[in-house]
Amino acid sequence: MSARQLRRPLALAIHGGAGVIERNSLGADAERAIHAELDRALDAGHAVLTTGGTALDAVEVAVALLEDSPYFNAGYGSVFTADGRHELDASIMDGHGRRAGAVAGLSTVRHPVRLARRVLEESPHVFLIGAGAEQYADTHSDIERVPNDWFATEARREQLRDAQHREQGAWQASQDLRGKYFGTVGAVALDSHGHVAAATSTGGMTNKRWGRVGDSPLIGAGTWADAHCAVSCTGWGEYYIRNAVAHDIASRVAYRGDRVRVATEDVILGEVPQHGGDGGAIAIDRDGNIALVLNTTGMYRGWVHPDGQRGTAIYRDA
Q1: Contact yes or no for 266/299 (Cβ under 8 A)
Q2: Which of 84, 116, 188, 310 is geometrically suited to a Cys-Cys bond with 284, CB 3.0 to 4.6 A?
Q3: What's the CA angle centered on 299, arms 276 and 198, to 5 degrees?
Q4: Cβ atoms of residues 301 and 21 within 8 Å
Q5: Which of 63-67, 125-129, 158-162 has the lowest mean pLDDT?
Q6: From CA 290, how far away is CA 113, in angstroms rounded?
Q7: What is the 3-state secondary structure (H, E, C) of the chain?
Q8: Nearest to residue 104, comparing CAs of 78, 65, 139?
Q9: Are 42 and 310 in contact (CB under 8 A)?
Q10: Do residues 293 and 247 lie in contact, with contact meaning Cβ atoms separated by under 8 Å?
């Protein structure tokens, strides 16, 4: 790496999902464990950047580690569908050239973000779903497979029981789900070449039916990266889809010249709740400015700024 590249800023931000996360709901041991998991993902992603790796590499590595943590709704620890299974989604996008890959409805892929990366690099398509995505995984021996029940944890079983009890056996399209039963992991990064990338992965929505897919694997809704900034979202996916949230944030930066924090706040604190949704987003621009914005009581998140300042947080007030 040249001296000029070494002088360029490097930055990374991650999230582990936004929602109703109250201070008295986790306990000290869980808080410490969550901070440790976030730090581990930050360490791995930032190490990629400091050794000359790409932003795309960094977000894949960071998200794959979060997918292995039982504390977040992605990979191991994913929520249950209504029929007691797991359906996983992920996407990844490179701002340099706007290459993207996405997968949805996976049932045996340990790290969905890694399969999304293969779609980006080796497939003529952008988005693969269900049985077809599983068949595509079959053609890649380096994509680790696990039985569907490998993703299960007792905490997620309890969430399913609670959701079904609240539902009382009948789907209510009008019920208020703000801050409930959701979760996502994601990362955005800036590398030494001045390129940004984003990745997002999720187990979806607790008690989901009918092959429901949220915003996480949808390019422009839950994930976006271009020459100006990269965005990864978390929250009530239906509202992120309807408002093309990730793309809206990036468009405000690209076309109006908004600062990345202003753009993220305008959408997450304005557009999303105005239309009835909730959640958060992380974003990064090509200068290394980071935005971590939420309209819920908490969002698991972490960051490393270009000057090396780093941290992790859980609650709205940190």
Answers
A1: no
A2: 188
A3: 90
A4: no
A5: 158-162
A6: 22
A7: CCHHHHHCCCEEEEEEEEECCCHHHHCHHHHHHHHHHHHHHHHHHHHHHHCCCCHHHHHHHHHHHHHCCCCCCCCCCCCCECCCCCCEEEEEEECCCCEEEEEEEECCECCHHHHHHHHHHHCCCCEEEHHHHHHHHHCCCCCCECCHHHHCCHHHHHHHHHHHHHHCCCCCCCCCCCCCCCCCEEEEEECCCCCEEEEEEECCCCCECCCCCCCCCCECCCEEECCCEEEEEEECHHHHHHCCHHHHHHHHHHHHCCCHHHHHHHHHHHHHHHCCCCEEEEEEECCCCEEEEECCCEEEEEEECCCCCEEEEEECCC
A8: 78
A9: yes
A10: no
Q: Are 288 and 11 in contact (CB under 8 A)?
A: yes
202 annotated active-site: no
Q: Which of 149, 221, 177, 182 is nearest to 72 (CA)?
A: 182
Given the structure tokens 């340099």, which residue do they identify? 96
Summarize pLDDT for 142-193 with one digit per residue, the tens: 999 999 999 999 999 998 998 888 776 554 555 555 555 568 999 999 999 9
Q: Which residue has 């698991």 as its token pair?
A: 300
* Tokens describing residue 184: 């996502």
Opening angle at CA 21, ends 17 and 22, nearest 5: 165
* pLDDT per residue as tens digits for the range 28-44: 899 999 999 999 999 99
Closest listed residue to residue 206, CA positions, set 233, 166, 242: 166
Place of tokens 């053609």: 139
292 to 127, 214, 280, 300, 308: CA distances (angstroms): 27, 21, 8, 10, 17
Residue 25: partners with Cβ closer than 8 Å, 6 or more residues away? none
d(CA 134, CA 272): 33
Instruction: Report how far residue 78's alpha carbon sits from residue 72's, in angstroms, rounded to the nearest whole number.
Output: 7
- Spatial distance between the Cα atoms of 31 and 291, rounded to a whole number of angstroms: 22
Catalytic pick among 51, 54, 139, 184: 184
